[in-house]
Amino acid sequence: MTPDPTPDTATPSEPHGDVRAALLGYGMAGREFHGPLLRATAGIRVSHVVTSDADRSGAAQAENSGVTMVAQPDELWDKADEFDLVVLASPSAAHVPQARSAIAIGKAVVVDKPLAVTGADAREVVALADQHAVPLTVFQNRRWDPENLTARRLLADAELGRVLRYEARYERWRPEPKHRWREDLPTEQGGGLLLDLQSHLVDAAMLAMGPVVAVYAELAAVTTAGHDVTFLALEHESGAHSHLSSTSLAGAVGPRLRILGQSGAYLVAAVPGEPSAFDTQWADPDEAHRGWLVRGDERTAVRREPGDWSAFYAGVVAMVRDGAPPPVDPWGAVAVLEVLDAAQRSAADRTTVHLTP
């Protein structure tokens, strides 16, 4: 899905600074997300890129001044004195073994979401990082999307009163799937939308609504090996409920975000660059606003919090240089995966799965 935008920053600058980042993977995640954000962040530079693909290697050399190219991850660990940070933009199933290797040589780690394929594996790798006092964080970049930041501000200000339901969607119409590892691998090997986009949706719902105590899910793999139709209903410890949908088979997509409270609702129909059936009536009036505060027939455009994905990597620099807390607590990423595990059990058994928050 097209970012919105990626991020609200100036044009990426030349590499500089003293945190040297080794980037594993230069596919979509590495080249389109991590690479530009790393280059745009003061105090960090891409020192190494790991890829065995000739075209990606050429792109990495063209886009990252002075970069050292490495063909395989095993070759990187022998160069430990040449970098300070490992960024894992590899396929999801590779995250845990590669994170273990980085922790073994004492290097700080950024892992693209999801941290692992299962909650148990995620818990094991975070505990290992804690045991060895190695900083580790997870790239949950959507925390810094304008609609999520704006929603959390409204909730903090109690604009909606008691929240009854939180609804969020990442939906698209793609009946003919692309053939990438995300589409061609089953969920248990890291493919599909449950581990991909639902990782973002569950993370945002838990940040907004708090810990989850019960999970009900409907999952299907229709056109891809992994789940391409996913719906999760979460009950939060607060008593609020979340309904989260991610699908590639939505001929008419629903609103991106709708939060219903006793005092009103917050509605975001769509974000720039993505389709919506609601653009005409509910489009943002201008760039200074994101979504609407709605009370029946009354609606007011809501001031937009600036989206800034680069805030994540600014936090990584502080984590590595100064020992600051990670920008995303990895134990929160473990909790997200435990919800996704519960979703798979729920769908398989056609039941509600209860969790201890």
Q: Can you give keywords for this protein?
A:
357 residues; alpha/beta; Rossmann fold; Dihydrodipicolinate Reductase, domain 2; 2 domains; nine-stranded mixed sheet; six-stranded parallel sheet; 11 helices; 15 strands; 24% strand; disordered N terminus
How would you describe this structure to a colleague?
There is one protein chain. It is built from 11 helices and 15 strands. By secondary structure, the protein is α/β, with parallel strands linked by helices. The chain folds into 2 domains: 139 residues, Rossmann fold; 173 residues, Dihydrodipicolinate Reductase, domain 2 (2-Layer Sandwich). A hairpin with an 8-residue loop joins strand 8 and strand 9. Helix 4 runs parallel beside helix 5 and helix 8 crosses helix 11. It is globular. The protein starts with 18 loop residues before the first strand and ends with a strand.
User: Strand order within the widest sheet?
Assistant: 14-13-12-11-7-10-9-8-15
Order of helices and strands: EHEHEHEHEHEHEHHEEEEEHEEHHE
Runs in which pLDDT lies below 50 for 5 or more consecutive residues are 1-16
CATH class of the largest domain: Alpha Beta
Q: Which outline best applies?
A: globular
**Overall average pLDDT:** 93
CATH architecture of the largest domain: 2-Layer Sandwich
Spatial gap, N to C terminus: 31 Å
- Estimate percent helicity: 25-40%
- In DSSP terms (H or I, runs of 4 or more residues), the helix count works out at 11
| Biggest sheet statistics | 9 strands, mixed
